[in-house]
Amino acid sequence: MEVRAIGRYIRISPFKAQKVAALIRGKPVKEAMNILMLTPKKGARIIKDVLQSAVANAENNYGLNRENLFVKIAQVDKGPTLKRIKPRARGRADLIRKRTSHITIVLDTAE
Question: Is the keyword Magnesium in the record (predicted)?
């Protein structure tokens, strides 16, 4: 049975978050949590929160055991970009793009 959790409008670049998501794809939940706790990136902390939410959904809503779950899909999609303007020399302006992400974690039971 598939269980999912989605984190929307997370303030991290999708490119940076995708690198961390690739580390846990296909791994058991316990191993994925250990990898995320030891990875020194901002994306690891954010993805760990979404993974914990997916595990809580599995346990509370479907009565599944944490030991039998593995990460089936760890996907990071592009969200809307916040655009800000930074003044520069000689009256010019630069556009600052603050990118957001939608993070989806799908868990499945190991057969």
Answer: no
